[in-house]
Amino acid sequence: MTAGAPHATWTGRLYRAGLSRAETVTVQAGPQGLVLSGMEGDGARAVPRHTLTIVPPIGGDYWRFEFANGDTLEVIGGGPLATALGHTPNLLSRLEGSWRLALAAVPVLLGLGAATWYWGVPWAADLAAAHTPPWVERKLTDAGLDLIFRNEKERTTVDPTRQKRLAGILADMVGAQDGDAFRLHFLNSPLIGPNAFALPGGDIVVTDQLLKILDDEEVAAVLAHEVGHVRHRHGLRLALRASGLSVLAAVAVGDASTAGHFLVGAPVLLLNLRFTREFEAEADADALAWLSRSPGPHEPPRSPCAFARALRKIVDSPEVKQAATIAGHIPSWLATHPMTEERLRPFDAACPTKI
Amino acid sequence: MPDFVDVSNAADNPAQGGSHAFRFHGTGREYFPIWIVNLLLTIVTLGIYSPWAKVRSQRYFHEATELAGARFGYHARPLSILIGRIIVLVLFVPYAILAKIQSPYALVYVPVLLVAGPWIIVKALRFRLRVTSYRGVRFSFSHEPGVMAGAYINFLGLPILGGLTLGLLYPYVLHQQYRWIADNSRYGAMPLRMAPAVGRFYLLSLILVAAILLFGGGIAAIIFSIAQAAKTTGDLSSAHYATFLLIPVVYAALFLVALLVTLWLAKTVVQRLSLADVTLSASWQLGPVLWLYVSNGLLLVFTLGFAYPWVRCRTARYVLEHLTVHAPTGLDSFVAGAQSETGAFGDQAAAFFDIDVGIGF
Asked: What is the pTM of this model?
């Protein structure tokens, strides 16, 4: 290693212990330590090596020398001076100066982030959902129901005997021990159109517009799908996964900018679509299993064909078609469910006669 | 050379007297590998390295900041930060368990936190300022006996009073908090002072409240018109969907006003600070700050966060290089105050909660 030339000099600023007054001094590396000259008052001053602490920079080239008597010397570009005093950079500062390491770390960190994004967060969210007490879901659902039925003042126009019949089908479907958790609600909403959705606690909402175009067997098939959502706790898991991803995105993008928060919303929303597709497929599998099982002695007949019929009727309904034509407004039913025909393939395969 | 000619001052002319803008020497290019190493080591050590990472990045930003030829220093010891964080963790694990089993005993922590809050704020300020230096002289926060009482008045008593007056007192409360922090801060032995600005705080609050009310009214009007249309015609035309697009516009307007108020507030406070005859002025402006926000957000999103070092550095550069120190008699005459080491716990407790007390370097 080549130390600086023996007579090389640096310019530094000396601060005496406890004083903010700056003195410009000339600094040299002597055989025993630093040699300062050019101070006011006294001549050259030698500072033995063992009485000074070298504070190497973190990035940059601002070197600080702290003397045992409390004085501080600042030297910009003091690296060679420190080297001449026998200072060797430690491993950490060598790593911090290495762009090669930094660039190599980028794909590693990206991979780690992606793994957390795709597997870590969903896994942790599902774990949290499994440990969430049922009353939390109940509270969420009650708040949701309140919101839905307060805003839509229109009473349902569904015939009470049909309401009772459908509630009976649902009760048979879920069995006695779960019977209390599941409740069926009817909603008259032209804005939502023909649709059914499940809330976390086991409340299932069907719209009058859906009941208008489907017969009871088809409604039962749709209910089997919604029961699948409830059984797998899709509502809560989706909410937890989405918040987990928002947190992760916020951590990655940092708190440096509020504008960032608006921008991270969109990708998280797109990712929700991935989860909802996964959940729809899971609920479809449940529906198919239920529809393929033979009904009990007092139950109405059922078949996988009914689900395929129901879905095609919904997609072909004028409300859904009209909504699809309005630019920028794709009904959630279409966007969040896997493409209809692809979805229906297993149902068509299980359906003895093509409808 | 005659004895009475002051050599150092002749060479050091800029420090003698006059105005100096801060200069920031950090660059994203230089900070990037430092940040990556911090990140990697923190992940590999499962977070144990994080106090070291914090100290190294704080040192980078302090030592890259120049005022009148001298750099700032950051002297916190990582081990004390680590111990503080462990203590906080130990104190809050019982709370996490109590909350988990939904025990009503978890509520015991509410008054504890309320009462401990001002104490933590004082400890945090002492730590934050104590570990910062400039020209070999440390900053500090008051150790006078009345300072704890002041913390409880300003951060517990006054906010309660503000609530009782339905928020009418809040701008005053905020003003008192800023002023109390400033008046108890010191550079060496010299206390910082903040000139009162109650009127300006009320004016800014009024602007913000008016903007929020207008925003709420605008959103309500949009929602109401759409709901009305849905009720009467039963279906919505594309004109109604276009109305939805007004919502982000209204949001953006509120964001702009909030940013402007924040900026004015920062300027108001900064320009009322004084340290002996040294004063500050700031020339931050809405346009560049807005651009900084937007471009930082875009940079972070499109690089998946890897632009963070550049974002940090360009933000620091803008904020610092538009801040000017006016020192008519120079910066040479400050002396260090009494030394006192502060314990790690309260100080680090605040660091753990990431409590931002606003002022400070």
From this structure: 0.74
Per CB-CB distance under 8 Å, the chain A contacts of B6 are: 40
Q: Quick one: average pLDDT of A15-20?
A: 89
Closest CA to A57 of A7, A8, A92, A108: A92
Over 80: is that where the pLDDT of B345 sits?
no
Please give the residue of chain A at the shortest CA–CA distance from B62. Answer: A58
By the 10 Å C-beta count (0-12 exposed, 13-18 middle, 19+ buried), B252 is classed as exposed
Which among A251-255, B72-76, B301-305 has the top mean pLDDT?
B72-76
Sign of CA dihedral B340, B345, B348, B349: negative
Bridge partners of residue B134, in order along the sequence:
B72, B137
Q: Is A256 helix (H, G, I), strand (E, B) or coil?
A: coil
The answer to whether residues A62 and A54 touch, using CB atoms and an 8 Å cutoff, is: no
> How many whole angstroms separate alpha carbon B1 and alpha carbon A348?
103
Backbone angles phi, psi at A15, to 5 degrees: -115, 120
Q: How far apart are CA B187 and CA A48, in angstroms?
A: 30
3-state secondary structure of A196: strand
Across the interface, of A15, A57, A101, the residue whose CB is closest to B63 is A57
Residue A187, classed as helix, strand or coil, is strand
Q: C-alpha distances in angstroms, A264 versus A120, B249, B280, B289, B293?
A: 19, 18, 36, 20, 14
Q: For B64-90, how does the pLDDT look when each residue is reduced to its tens digit (9 = 90+)?
A: 999 988 999 998 888 877 877 777 778
Long-range pairs for B212-219: beta carbons < 8 A, 24 or more residues apart: B212/B254, B215/B250, B215/B251, B215/B253, B215/B254, B218/B246, B218/B250, B219/B247, B219/B250
Contacts of B11 in chain A (CB under 8 A): 24
Residue A170 has what pLDDT? 87
* Closest chain B residue to the Cα of A41, Cα to Cα: B3
Digit-coded pLDDT (tens) for B85-112 = 777 778 777 777 776 666 677 777 778 7
pLDDT of the residue at B231: 64
Q: ipTM for the complex? A: 0.78
Does any CB of chain B come closer than 8 Å to the CB of residue A91? Answer: no
CA distance to partner chain A, nearest, from residue B259 (Å):
10
3-state secondary structure at position B182: helix
Strands B132-134 and A203-207: unpaired
Query: A148-152, A266-270, B223-227, B352-356: which has the minimum mean pLDDT?
Result: B352-356
Q: How far apart, in whole angstroms, are the C-alpha atoms of residue A24 and residue A38? A: 7
CB B12 within 8 A of CB A22: yes
